[in-house]
Amino acid sequence: MSAIINKATGLVNSAVAKSTQLANCAVYWGKVTGEIAKTVYKSEGLAPPSQAQFKQTYQSWFNVLKSTNEQKQLLKKLSGVQADKATVTKAAVYGIHCLAFFSVGEIIGRRSIFGYPAVGHAEHH
Predict the structure, then answer these.
(1) Around 38, how many Cα atoms within 13 Å sit in the side-chain half-sphere?
(2) Where does the protein principally reside (predicted)?
(3) Alpha helices for the chain (secondary structure H)
(4) Top-confidence residue, 43 or 95
(5) What is the C-alpha to C-alpha distance for residues 33 and 52, in angstroms, rounded to an integer?
(6) pTM of the model
């Protein structure tokens, strides 16, 4: 009986040590990423947009939605775009980024990588 307890204790201790090591590694790399982001933020002179910039951007988009003439001009501009290999590649990369962000949000929302977690007693009829 004590051999089983010793083996179980060893497994638990091993799991705790590995999880502690993993948590320490995650914290370390999180701090490294934060410091790199801070350095890039300062060196590039990045800053969030001002209230005037937000207002100007949303006002221009609202005008496009409100005015049919501006909608027609936008459609003419978009239909005149030549789709070369670089443009298609750039659009594909942006699409993949959007899909990745959406997928991560879905995984976080479901709290599961595959499917939705089972809640309660499920019966199949």
Answers:
(1) 6
(2) mitochondrion
(3) 2-44, 51-66, 68-79, 85-110
(4) 95
(5) 31
(6) 0.38
